[in-house]
Amino acid sequence: MKKKLLIPFIVIAAICVFYITNQKTNNSEEFINITLEGKLKPKNKPKNFRQLYSIKRDEYESNMQINPLTGEIPKEEKLKELNTSLGLMAQKKLRKKTSSTYTSRGPSNLGGRTRAFAVDISDTSSNTMLSGGVSSGLFRTIDGGLSWTKVTPLGEIHNVSALTQDPREGFQNIWYYGTGEWSGNSASLGSAYKGQGVWKSIDGGLTWSVIPGTDSDHTVFDSYFDFTNSLEVSPITGELFIATSGRIYRYDGVSLNQELKLEGNSTSSTDLVITPNGNVYASFDGGASLGGVWMSPTGNGVWTQIAQNGTPTDWSAAGRIVLGEAPSADNIIYALYVNGNSGGLEGDLWQYNATTTTWTNYSSKLPDEPGSDSDGNDPFAVQGGYDLVVTVKPDNENFVTIGGTNAYKIADIRTDVSFSRIGGYANNTGYSQYENHHPDIHVLEFDPNNNDVFYSGTDGGVHKTLDINEASIAWLSLNNNYLTYQYYHVTLDPFTGSNIIMGGAQDNGTTIGGTHVGLANNTTMNQLAGGDGVAVGLTRRDNNTALQYFLGFQQGAIYTNYPDGFREITPKDAPTGVDAQFITYYYLDPDNTDYLYYAAKSKLYKTNASAAVTDSTWTDAGTLSNVQNLRTFATTRGTYSSALSYLLIGGDKGGVFKLKDPKNPTSTLLDAVDITPTGATTSSNTIVSDIAIHPTNPDIVLVVYANYGISNIFLTTNATDELPTWTLVERNLNAHSIRSAEITEVGEETVYFIGTARGLYSSTDPTSVNWEMEGESNIGLALISSLAYRPADNKLLIGTHGNGMYETTIEGTLSTNSYASALQLSFYPNPTKKELNLQSNTLDLSQNLNYTISDLTGKVVKKGVLKDQKINVEYLNDGVYLINLSVDGKNQNFKFIKN
């Protein structure tokens, strides 16, 4: 064992070189090609950071949900939120027309946290597979992962954590999946990922219904079926076995039978496997009252404990225990458990032989690679059991694979010296990722039709290797339209007509997308940075020919790429590491992008020169008079005015403050006026989650709160007054957790948008008009974590925490005719069969009007110059298209339907 360095922080060298070239097209759009030579990685990681970050993520989400007056998440309010959302979804589906079309922006090539995966054994080609995202739903592919289709309804809450198929001939059309993530989202903190029971399909995974008796209330932990850890079907009887939080159940197709349970109401992570001859093995946490491993010949009673702390000798489980059966040997199983040795080898591995009833300790073969260690990476690390899995090759009971932070294999556990690394981080000396693979391993599965083919499910989605026997494993990504990314913040390029977008995602860093950065379509993205993504910012420099972006990492760090490559610009006196806010927050003024604001917990740092800012050139603007941590910012839109412009600040004690003329270097937060809405809760942990200011009228402001149990949506129409008056405008969403907000303007119509924990909603006047669901046919009840709006072309970007990003062009509801305000023209008919006719009272359409037509993936299908005020679209396939028009330096985007 190598001695660990006892230092509070580890500095990791991060080298990232980006080359930016610029190309202009003949339709005056700006295309910026980015070549990624390396990936920016977080540094200053605290000791045991992987486990710490998992805990901090839980706290971040929990603090936005708890009722600040009670410290608890109210069950009745979350249930009302769900029922209200389902009702509004049903109402919207009855309408014949929606005001906006929502298009996925991906990422279609990147995947998120995955705990459930299986190859359909009834398909001998192995092209049919199912896979589940923890906050994304269940997906199915019939082409080997070239594309995925979501098979869980948008109107249900499906936090998929377990998956299994009936293995018996004639019954392989039957599938089950379980919901709720026990490990990694802290049940005690009230995580967002509680489940909604166990679900069954009898048509190969196409449609699903809940098993009666398991349909738990996912809003609070009130049922053991809130967290399903494992599912298995007996190959002998076809009975389903369910490992929940502290209980093992047997479902015979009619009734649920409790087979094992902890004493009282105790809970624990659990696991189970079933051998080919029908023997059932189950596990409970090592520290639980019945902790260890249990065995039953059939799973129907007659359970015997075969392992517990002290028996066999040296068995010492401190936490989660996972099991792996050997399909080629009925008598062999493996147990991998958390041993509590944080910073050392964090797991122990044993093999059980049922024929001899003996355990063999193979813990000495767990990986502890030579050379320097990196915390949370090597020796074998499991983040307290967040990622822990053991799987056995179907044709060789001695070939074992294991997963923790990384994935490993050993070809013959009897004779080989140690496990070797096959995925996760590239090596044990740092935190660069293994080529085309992701850390945090939750699923390892062999192909039932070719036992050399191997799959993994990780925090980076689904991957496949064609030959597990190779000395160096090459992985193929199967994340093709597997929409499972969990975004915290998103933004879009302020340049009119640009399709460049950017987002910071949970445990998947920062991504950038758009054909205008040289990508193939508008759903593909590049990952710019690792770690946990946070706030993001985009702007143009050098007469719009260069793209500057701001990105960061959890717990304080912020970087920019301009002008000469990536550099850290974190204010040198700002708290970082464990003292910083976990999801680092900063705000780039979208219309005056020289101004950048950084939240250093309760202190504000600002700069009027974001293009060249360094860690030492920030202005320290101090703290608020009512000191609280800064959670969100918003600035007035349009050209900056020292007399009219202001910055709004939202805190974590419910406070809202207005700072006039924030550009002024002498202005500080002590100058900010408290304009907190009357009726808002102002106790600790009351999170102002977002603030939206009208794009042309600075008097109109929307303020929203995330917590349950309080008033959440406030509107003012006199924000420029010294003390604005506020109106509570929750209306029909008075039970919702509100996470994001935007105010849009189309013609003379204002449309208000709010993103909630259960979907996206709009209202043309929330003082008198109820909120209406948006994107009911594709966004559904996803958590809307972030909204970004570009008034110049009415583009709205929607970031979800689970299903990636969506976008729409706001069209309003006053007119059915699309109207291009920037160019002052209209077009008809829409839908059309052959051509589009354009009209304008202000433009000479005989001049050169360039157009580009793209499909919804961003692929250009036609472009040219307008002739006779018509565009021929007769030969386009039926569908929805986006058209960009440009003349005299002005651009406008809108959509039309070809049928």
From TrEMBL:
Residue runs in coiled coils: none
Q: What is this protein's record name?
A: Secretion system C-terminal sorting domain-containing protein
Q: What is the lineage of its organism?
A: Bacteria, Pseudomonadati, Bacteroidota, Flavobacteriia, Flavobacteriales
Q: Does the keyword field hold Transmembrane?
A: yes
The reply to whether Membrane figures as a keyword in the UniProt entry is yes
Residue ranges of every copy of the Secretion system C-terminal sorting domain listed in the record = 828-895
Task: Give the residue spans that cross the bilayer.
Answer: 5-21
Write down the species: Polaribacter sejongensis
- Keywords assigned by UniProt? Membrane, Signal, Transmembrane, Transmembrane helix
Q: Name one Pfam family in it.
A: Por_Secre_tail
